[in-house]
TrEMBL record:
Chain ranges of the Aldehyde dehydrogenase domain: 12-476
Signal peptide positions on this chain: none
Species per Swiss-Prot/TrEMBL record: Alkaliphilus serpentinus
Keyword annotations: Oxidoreductase
UniProt cross-references to InterPro entries, sorted A to Z: Ald_DH/histidinol_DH, Ald_DH_C, Ald_DH_N, Aldehyde_DH_dom, Aldehyde_DH_Superfamily, Succ_semiAld_DH
Family: Belongs to the aldehyde dehydrogenase family.
Record GO terms (molecular function): succinate-semialdehyde dehydrogenase (NAD+) activity
Name of the protein: NAD-dependent succinate-semialdehyde dehydrogenase
NCBIfam families: SSADH (TIGR01780)
Amino acid sequence: MKNNKMYINGCWVEAKNGKGIEVHNPATGELLGTVPMGGGTETKEAIDAADGAFKEWSQLPASARGSLLRKLYDLVMEEKEEIARIMTLEQGKPLKEAVGECIYGANFLEWYAEEAKRVYGETIPASSKEKRIMVLKQPIGVVAAVTPWNFPLAMITRKLAPALAAGCTVVLKPASQTPLTAIKFMELVEAAGFPPGVVNMVTGVSSQIGAALMEDERVKKLTFTGSTEVGKQLMKQSADTVKKVSLELGGHAPFIVFEDADIDKAVDGAVASKFRNCGQTCISSNRFYVHENILDAFLRKLVERIKDLKLGNGLVEGVEIGPLIDSNSFEKVQKHVEDALDKGGKLVYGGKGQHLGINKKGGYFMEPTVIASATGDMIIAKEETFGPIMPIISFNSEEEVIKMANNSSYGLAAYFFTQSLSRSIRVMEALEYGIIGVNDGRPSTPQAPFGGFKESGIGREGGHYGIEEFLEIKFVSIEI
């Protein structure tokens, strides 16, 4: 056990109330340690620090900010095995997958270390010879970054890297289930030499920390990844101080396999999309639409592919699917499976859940599960499952499947497999989603914009689009 601390204004501090939040291993239920139960007071101190550091940080040359980000990238890469081990202990994903997240997360630091130097202004032709028009881009100010438990490192770097590159200062609130990865990352922030107050981290009661962040007018920007329900509440709260918001919210991704698809490639893409992180990703495929002419072949190859997937503790060699994060997730996944079977779904593979923990704090596992003959009236066809369940729905026309795929209030990611160029163009244009994987089950990359349509969010993360979210545009008219 280790008593960890918050990081505010370059110092490691405890909560004023002396209380802590327990962190448990989701694979076993074991207590890993505690983190401070901070609240409004500590959050205000973090905002004070970020606000105090903003002027000097924002005026640093972009190359200087970029150099610090590059140094932080190097430190994360050097420590990736240790970070991954911490991540697996508190989040549950297989160790190999956790190492992959460390590399992916570090790449945002590397990308924005360079992108800091590419925040360009503009000159615009004036309407008279006596005037000159300029457009400047400047950092927005103090940023509140609220991150989820399913990607404890990558969701931090995807937000902090562009914010810092732009010249903003940050107050980070990591998820209470997975704060240890964030604390390790903050140790590297300190080691990299970021000035005090530029990056701050508070842990504790989400409602109190969130209220302090949203009520303070000095916080100019909120970047949040989490559920649509919480995102809507934060959006309402941001209205009082008119904060700029970036919201990466829930998804309900369709995965379409057309009759001309390479079935082997489609199966590989389906497995990569569905079972990564035990299905606990916002862009995980939730509805699988397979053309009726290839349904039997697809199911046969799919079962052959997933029957050897090893389920268990992510620290064990060869494990490919870890635990669900907690009992609530376990109960939700079971409910979705039971509802699908009650409504006529046919269990093709899996379906069993089990509790292997030493207490109710962890150890909830679910087999990779395939349910055929799924229909649109099932809960699993309407709601995000966040678990390793594949409902298979057959279709017989392109028009029909596009209509079914778009029949959702979510619009984050969608996938389809075909060998037709014409169909690829038609379908990618017709799908109402912010991210499209064409013959690709893993489209995420630091240099491309990540975000969704409809109730899946506002704004984009990644690429040059990501840094724009942390900049204000200033128009200057000069009469000479």
